[in-house]
Design brief:
Elements lengths: L2 E10 L4 E3 H4 L7 H8 L3 E3 L9 H15 L9 E5 L10 H8 L6 E5 L5 H14 L5 E8 L12 H4 L5 E10 L5 E9 L7 E2 L9 H7 L10 E2 L1 H23 L8 E4 L4 H10 L11 H4 L6 H11 L8 E8 L3 E8 L1
Parallel strand pairs: 4-5, 4-6, 11-12
Antiparallel strand pairs: 1-7, 2-3, 6-7, 8-13, 9-10, 12-13
């Protein structure tokens, strides 16, 4: 059986920076309130009139990752695209990437696991490579949140958190044992689905029904989050996913060179850091600059950490995520 390793990484975020002070001008909030609860100082939102979209950002990140892998677009055998905010209800973003990059008629798979989407996508790609089906797989996480947020005081509990952006990696076949992806671990608990949800539009609540109801108080088409409930479960499931990988691989937390957690909330990441007794240099966070970019957050952070030289050959790198569904998981990588 083959192993799979990351051979190229890249990320892209819009130029438009939205600070907490900027948000205080359109809703009742302030910098101190946001930073205290989330750790976020600013985020990137696609500016009105920009050509950026979920797929366009994904393509921009993908081009960087493919170039850094030393490959050509025609070397890519398969695409796995993770997002909760596709350009269209259907088809998904994977086929748009295939077209935008001018690739061969390779397969394109869309993953809808929200905040843990990139972790799930990596696990899927890893299995395709390990079985020998594909050699080079493009894995993308991309989100365009800002166009669908309630940017009023009513929606501030959610809207201040989320940002736009994309990241990508090329996962390639390797015959080197004990390197690359060591293991992946995935879980879900659907009974809590409505604690972090966007209910409409959907097949149960189509747009015409919303329009015909003409109810200005209908917020079903905005994201809803039970923040305290999600926080409580996140710290538990993050820990479980990390411990599961450590036990599976016969490792200890002290052997982790870099933990890259989903950038949901800086307070969650800090809680996990303390629980596993990790130093600051063993955890990489960038939510302060980009907010929560959902399926893109782990891969943006991973790419940025690599660019800054925080990941070296032979390092044990752990990716972990938790989010809507609830779904959660981890990826253990020997770099």
């Amino acid at each position: 059986m083959y192993s799979s390793k990351i051979t190229g990484l890249g990320f892209y975020v819009p130029d438009n920076i939205v600070t907490n002070d900027d948000l205080s001008k359109i809703m009742e909030t302030n910098d101190a309130w946001i930073q205290e609860r989330t750790g976020i100082e600013e985020r990137r939102w696609i500016k009105k009139g920009s050509d950026d979209s979920t797929s366009v950002m994904g393509a921009k990140a993908a081009r960087i990752a493919i170039e850094r892998a030393g490959l050509d677009k025609f070397d890519i055998d398969f695409i796995v695209f993770a997002t909760l905010s596709p350009d269209m209800y259907f088809p998904g973003g994977g086929v748009e990437i295939q077209e935008m990059l001018g690739m061969d008629t390779i397969g394109a798979l869309d993953v809808r696991n929200q905040c843990s989407g990139f972790v799930y996508a990596m696990s899927v790609a890893d299995q395709f490579i390990k079985t020998g089906m594909y050699k080079n797989i493009l894995v993308i996480g991309s989100e365009y949140h800002s166009g669908g947020l309630d940017k009023t005081t009513r929606g501030r509990g959610v809207s201040v958190i989320f940002g736009d952006g994309a990241g990508a990696v090329v996962l390639s076949r390797s015959e080197e044992k004990g390197r690359g992806i060591l293991s992946t671990h995935l879980h879900s608990e659907g009974k809590h689905a409505k604690e972090l949800v966007l209910e409409g539009p959907s097949t149960a609540r189509w747009v015409p029904e919303i329009i015909e109801a003409n109810n200005p108080d209908d917020v079903s088409y905005y994201p809803y989050m039970n923040g305290q409930f999600v926080f409580k479960h996140a710290v538990t499931r993050f820990s479980e996913a990390i411990n599961e990988g450590l036990e599976y691989n016969g490792l200890t937390a002290a052997e982790i060179d870099l933990l890259v957690p989903h950038q949901a909330n800086l307070r969650i990441a800090q809680f996990i850091q303390r629980k596993f007794k990790l130093r600051d240099d063993q955890v990489y966070n960038n939510i302060m600059k980009y907010g929560n970019t959902t399926a893109a957050s782990v891969v943006i952070a991973l790419s940025e950490a690599w660019e800054k030289g925080k990941i070296n050959d032979g390092d044990l790198v752990v990716l972990a995520a938790f989010g809507s569904g609830f779904t959660w998981g981890s990826v253990f990588i020997k770099w």
